[in-house]
């Protein structure tokens, strides 16, 4: 098959789809990934076709107003504020992204479309082309369940009715973009307006969209009342290239003492990255551990480091994490997955809504400390958490053993193979239904 994948966001929103794309290519399919242009080389170096999309949305989130929105996006009210702050600009950018995705899809001539829910053009392009659409997401936040509240909503513990309502409200949020979507459908695609009753997990005709969740049930169990169109496949890991070599300086640092603690916040740094850097450095020194700090896209500003702290920019987590004693990060789905796979204790310092969810899951599974929201992050709190998961005492050995056991189980899963099997079955099911009618 000719498979077209659309995704939007930071590296954590792109890397799992590259991993899935490589798996699909290995299974004999042609794969094009359409996403922001700053990821073009990342996609093509892995042997996949690239479909152009402008990177305006990424620039918006890396702007001053975007960083301010990130800092206020830790809960429902913060998320609403974020949406309202960025909505006007985000709508204009989505208009252009929809056009780019449509142009790229026409060039790719796909048999099936796989899309991240943030790439809202996906299902509409599939409808226009008369081909199947599959939603793919690394977070359990869009399929309704009465078993738990929707990610980002306050967990008021009011019962099943409240949990269900939270998803209804979440789905209504997607209708904020109805004007942009209908403009796209009518003016570019030449199809009718989207019915107001349509949810983000439906096609315009009301048919449910198959949904692949790229994470492990060991970490987030599948709700018993989920729709049968929702699947949990296991993680989609992108392992490093065989020819990748670690810098000599890093190897020397790793060999010079005890295993260090990794600290990295990915694309999250807020408006004051130097404050974050100072907290991290101070915490590592208070905990009396060696550290590796990743500056990443967030731009942490690190100066005057001691010989016990090593600074890196970007490095494959699959290589580094097995070589550290613990991982400290923002709780992005991909980074959380990499730390758990490596079997390392985790400390999550969340910025945004789904990051809080993964932090709570880490704590509930007994594989890390209680999450520390970035708004409440101090050097003292971080140092205490580091000591909790690294010291040689009975309680902490349980955390480390739990993490090691979970990591071993995750490494045995076949998330990409499971996803491919479902993807390959969709056109066959569709053809069978058409023949029956």
List keywords for this structure.
single chain, 437 residues, alpha/beta, Rossmann fold, 5-stranded parallel β-sheet, 12 strands
Question: How would you describe this structure to a colleague?
Answer:
Strand 1 (2-6), helix 1 (15-26) and strand 2 form a beta-alpha-beta unit. The model has no long low-confidence stretch (mean pLDDT 88). The protein folds into two domains: 2-235 and 413-436, Rossmann fold; 248-411, Glycogen Phosphorylase B (Rossmann fold), CATH 3.40.50. The longest helix is centred in the first third of the chain and has 33 residues, at 76-108. The strands form two sheets. A seven-stranded parallel sheet has the order 3-2-1-4-5-6-7. A five-stranded parallel sheet has the order 10-9-8-11-12, sandwiched between helices. The two termini are 24 Å apart. It has 16 helices and twelve strands. The protein is of the alpha/beta class and 437 residues long.
- What is the class of the largest domain in the CATH system? Alpha Beta
Count of DSSP strands: 12
Distance between the termini: 24 Å
Tally of discrete structural domains: 2
pLDDT below 50 for ≥5 consecutive residues: which ranges? none
Helix and strand run: EHEHEHHHEHEHHEEHEHEEHEHEHHHH
On the 0-100 scale, what is the average pLDDT?
88
- Relevant CATH superfamily of the largest domain: Glycogen Phosphorylase B
Radius of gyration using CA atoms only: 22 Å
Structural class: alpha/beta
Described by the principal axes of the CA atoms, the overall outline is: globular
What is the percent of helical residues? 40-55%
């Amino acid at each position: 098959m000719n498979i077209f994948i659309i995704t939007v966001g930071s590296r954590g929103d792109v890397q799992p789809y590259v991993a899935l794309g490589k798996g699909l290519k290995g299974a004999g399919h042609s794969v094009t990934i359409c996403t922001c242009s700053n990821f073009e080389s990342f996609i093509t170096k892995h042997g996949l076709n690239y479909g152009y999309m402008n990177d305006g949305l990424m620039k918006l989130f890396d702007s001053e107003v975007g960083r301010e929105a990130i800092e206020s996006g830790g809960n429902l009210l913060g998320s609403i504020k974020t949406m309202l702050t960025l909505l006007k600009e985000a709508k204009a950018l989505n208009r252009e992204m929809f056009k780019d995705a449509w142009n790229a899809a026409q060039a790719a001539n796909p048999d099936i479309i796989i899309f991240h829910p943030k790439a809202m053009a996906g299902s509409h392009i599939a409808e226009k082309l008369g081909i199947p659409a599959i939603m793919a997401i690394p977070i359990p936040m869009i399929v309704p369940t009465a078993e738990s509240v929707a990610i980002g909503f306050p967990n008021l513990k009011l019962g099943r009715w409240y949990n269900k309502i939270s998803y209804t409200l979440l789905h209504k949020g997607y209708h904020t973009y109805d004007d942009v979507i209908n403009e796209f459908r009518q003016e570019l695609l030449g199809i009718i307006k989207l019915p107001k009753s349509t949810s983000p997990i439906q096609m315009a005709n009301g048919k449910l969209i198959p949904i692949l969740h790229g994470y492990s049930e060991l970490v987030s169990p599948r709700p018993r009342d989920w729709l049968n169109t929702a699947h949990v496949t296991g993680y989609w890991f992108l392992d490093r290239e065989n020819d990748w070599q670690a810098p000599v300086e890093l190897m020397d640092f790793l060999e010079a003492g005890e295993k260090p603690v990794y600290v990295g916040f990915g694309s999250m740094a807020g408006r004051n990255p130097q404050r974050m850097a100072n907290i991290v450095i101070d915490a590592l020194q208070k905990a009396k551990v060696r550290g590796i700090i990743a500056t990443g896209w967030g731009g942490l500003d690190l100066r005057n480091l001691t010989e016990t702290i090593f600074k890196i920019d970007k490095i494959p987590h699959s290589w580094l994490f097995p070589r550290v004693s613990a991982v400290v990060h923002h709780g992005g789905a991909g980074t959380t997955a990499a730390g758990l796979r490596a079997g390392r204790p985790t400390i999550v310092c969340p910025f945004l809504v789904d990051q809080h969810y993964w932090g709570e899951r880490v704590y509930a599974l007994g594989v890390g400390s209680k999450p520390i929201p970035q708004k409440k992050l101090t050097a003292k709190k971080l140092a205490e958490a580091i000591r909790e998961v690294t010291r040689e005492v009975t309680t902490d050995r349980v955390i480390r053993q739990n993490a090691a056991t979970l990591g071993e189980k995750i490494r045995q899963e076949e998330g990409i193979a499971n996803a491919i099997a479902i993807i390959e079955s969709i056109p066959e099911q569709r053809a069978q239904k058409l023949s029956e009618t």
